[in-house]
Specification:
The chain has about 400 residues and is mainly beta. It folds into 2 domains: about 300 residues, Methylamine Dehydrogenase, Chain H (7 Propeller), CATH 2.130.10; about 60 residues, Zinc/RING finger domain, C3HC4 (zinc finger) (Herpes Virus-1). The chain has 3 helices and 34 strands. The chain has a 4-stranded antiparallel β-sheet, with no helix packed on it. This is WD repeat and FYVE domain-containing protein 1. Keywords: Endosome, Metal-binding, Phosphoprotein, Repeat, WD repeat, Zinc, Zinc-finger. GO terms for molecular function: zinc ion binding.
């Protein structure tokens, strides 16, 4: 299918197509049904529901199923119409949905975790259901037998998960701010590496197997792009949200990243440019511009008979500087700084007006977003959160790509 590329003027914004209301508690997950005008939702109110769009334009639940425990995570495999629902009690339940999406049959229960399930993915090729939980582990189970194949434990709650089906690599983010890359085997696994860069817990991950890029969102309000492929170790920092980043989705076709935060912010980042990597912060006992001592440098303070100064860092060059040598603030989008950040005076002079042109668009979802999912082929996005509302968005005005799959947005 051919892609249709649209121009993206600054005034373009996501179009709210529908609101789905009816849950009595936090909506933990919502997924768009591919090639259908329908949504599957899982909630803390212990229900999983399938909503279909009627001729009136409203969404009505065609399936309403009550679980034994609050629903905390969900995965759906459309070709086999299998739904996997993770619960607060650590169990994962599998269901099979009928072709008309009006009936859902229970298949089996997997004793995956001892505590709340945080993320699930299903691999049809290996018939594995892989999950993470608040019992600090990743588990993988056989869907044919329902038996546990393996577990691996971390030092913190495992909060999110991405899986490469071809290489059997799993990426696990945790509450300590660390991402662990594992190679899963039939009954064992090996740790490949750990990625450290966030200053807060990892809240969301997205793996692009084509470009071999990993995107992570965290409670420190930032996103990091990790180049796992050819340039290992290369990272790009993106700062544009005012609250913790709850969800990320990379659109490989248009080289755009969509991210959502807890305050309802929706950002679309242009990744189709050569961005600069933020520098490592340098350490020094004195200002690297004026050489005045910092307040812990007792010897230089004594020798020069001066008071020590507070240490800052220039976000552009990474040098340790005092307040007098870094009086300016500037955005620098090429390095991911969409906000104004501290820069030293010399770096401020080197930044041209065109360097401050934003490389992202920011939009207001107008509700608390705790989970987001996209149907990239149709340019559709669904958001949900603690306000119990599910919103369906047409993102084509801002992502600039829509595949002609016959979806009706009326």
């Amino acid at each position: 299918m051919a892609a249709e590329i649209h121009s993206r003027p600054q005034s373009s914004r996501p179009i709210l197509l529908s609101k789905v209301e009816g849950h009595q508690d936090v909506v933990s997950a919502a997924l768009l049904i591919p090639k259908e005008d329908g949504v599957i939702t899982a909630s803390e109110d212990r229900t999983i529901r399938v909503w279909l769009k009627r001729d009136s334009g409203q969404y009505w639940p065609s399936i309403y199923h009550t679980m034994s425990s609050p629903c905390s995570a969900m995965a759906y495999h459309h070709d086999s119409r299998r739904i996997f629902v993770g619960q607060d009690n650590g169990a994962i339940m599998e269901f099979h949905v009928s072709e008309d999406f009006n009936k859902m049959n229970f298949v089996k229960t997997y004793p995956a975790h001892q505590n709340r399930v945080s993320a699930i993915t299903f691999c049809l090729a290996s018939e594995w259901v892989i999950s993470t939980g608040h019992d600090k582990c990743i588990s993988w189970m056989c869907t044919r037998s329902g038996s546990m194949l393996g577990r691996h434990y971390f030092t913190s709650w495992a909060s999110c998960l991405q899986y490469d089906h071809e290489t059997r690599h799993a990426f696990v983010g945790d509450y300590s701010g660390q991402i662990t890359l594992l190679k899963l085997e039939q009954n064992t696994c090996s740790v490949i590496t750990t990625l450290k860069g966030h200053e807060g817990s990892i809240t969301s991950l997205w793996w692009d197997p084509v470009q071999r890029l990993l995107f992570s969102g965290a409670s420190d309000h930032s996103i990091i792009m990790w180049d796992i492929g050819g340039r290992k170790g290369r990272t790009l920092l993106l700062q544009g949200h005012h609250d913790k980043v709850q969800a990320v989705c990379y659109i490989q076709l248009t080289r755009q990243l969509v991210s959502c935060s807890a305050d309802g912010g929706i950002a679309v980042w242009n990744m189709d440019i050569s961005r600069e990597e933020a520098p490592q912060w340098l350490e020094s006992d004195s200002c690297q511009k004026c050489e005045q001592p910092f307040f812990w440098n007792i010897k230089q303070m004594w020798d020069t008979k001066t008071l020590g100064l507070r240490q800052h860092h220039c976000r552009k060059c990474g040098q340790a500087v005092c307040g007098k040598c870094s009086t300016k603030r500037s955005s620098y989008p090429i390095m991911g700084f969409e906000f104004q950040v501290r820069v030293c005076d010399s770096c401020f002079e080197s930044i041209k007006d065109e360097d401050r042109t934003s490389l992202a668009t920011f939009h207001e979802g107008k509700h608390n977003i705790s989970h987001m999912s996209m149907d990239i082929s149709r340019g559709l996005m669904v958001t949900c959160g603690s306000d119990r509302i599910v919103k369906i968005w047409d993102m084509t005005p801002v992502v600039g790509c829509s595949l002609a799959t016959g979806f009706s947005s009326r």
